[in-house]
From TrEMBL:
Keyword Transferase set for record: no
Gene3D superfamilies: 3.30.70.260, P-loop containing nucleotide triphosphate hydrolases (3.40.50.300)
InterPro entries, per database record: AAA+_ATPase, ABC_transporter-like_ATP-bd, ABC_transporter-like_CS, ACT-like_dom_sf, MetN_ABC, MetN_ABC_transporter-like, NIL_domain, P-loop_NTPase
Name of the featured protein: Methionine ABC transporter ATP-binding protein
Amino acid sequence: MAEPVITLDKVDVNFSEKNKSVHAVDHVDLTVERGDIYGIVGYSGAGKSTLVRTINLLQRPTSGKVTVLGQDMLKLSAADLRGERRRIGMIFQHFNLMNSLTIAANVAFPLKGTLVKDHDQDGKVFSRKITKQEIAKKVNDLLDLVGLRERATAYPTELSGGQKQRVGIARALASDPEILISDEATSALDPKTTSSILALLASLNQRLGLTIVLITHEMEAVKQICNKVAVMDDGRIIERGDLLHIFAEPQQQLTKDFIDTTIQIDEAIAAVRDQPAVRNLTAPDELVRLTYVGASTDQPLVATLFKEYNVTANILFGDIQILQGTPFGNLLVVLSGTADALAQAFNYLKRSDVTVQHLAAMAKEDAK
Ligand SMILES: Nc1ncnc2c1ncn2[C@@H]1O[C@H](COP(=O)(O)OP(=O)(O)OP(=O)(O)O)[C@@H](O)[C@H]1O
């Protein structure tokens, strides 16, 4: 069984300012297992940052229990907490680099004065301060890991946003953490750079066995690298699970909305409604959205609809993406046939784990 590395137990965070009180995190339970890339998605103000800051106690919870790598964080002494925090790296939206230092010096910064294990001639183990040479080697290796070896002597202001975030990642990895918390680390970056930073995080997860908690307001980022996702709203986790499961069967409207942002389905529906095939639709023909994950795609859906049920499918929009190696498909189609044939076809789709959303019917509802 996978090993839990982070466990939050009924964690609450209340802020009280003047005469206002904010329940930023509301009784949250969360388990992150070793090797997970766990996405926490939600709109601004949902409480994501506050929640993840309780993991390393940058934010102390008002109540609840925080266990990280087997340690009850709230019971640690100040010195032990400092040690424990070194096992939890963090990267941020605005990189938080020191502009007066070279990027090598930025990465070296958390290494200064750290203790390393050594052994004397008799093999006796002792702790000593890390040497300058050891720091230089480590910084070189880290910059290599993030693809920035050549820029060691540059200053942060000379780098692009993506390069700055790579420095942020190298610095976060300097203490060889087992966990990396990414707080909106790609939110200030363009889509292409975002993709390359996410790909770097995914490769660090694979190569170093790094467990990653990724906070974001973009489901697209979650979709690209996470194996699990939790959706946060108003301080609570309203839905959570394996990525594929959540994409296949989202229960909450907010989760559905976040998923829809990754396929721009609203724009597609608006565009499709303008097409003659939809404008001139007559009952019982229907415009529907078909959504499926994985296995359903192995069946020749459209062919089966016609051959077995005498229903034709006019595909007006299609989007098939690969999530965790599994196809996730969304089609907007006009299904035509007799009322009976359509009813049977809908049954067949349901049996095949294809979710059907009746869009034309919704349009009539909207028009009321
Ligand atoms: N130090 C603080 N004092 C008072 N209120 C706070 C504090 N930090 C956060 N809050 C409030 O707690 C709520 C959750 O904020 P939080 O930053 O955790 O949300 P978020 O989902 O991370 O949003 P964002 O992406 O905008 O940071 C908000 O209402 C915020 O105003």
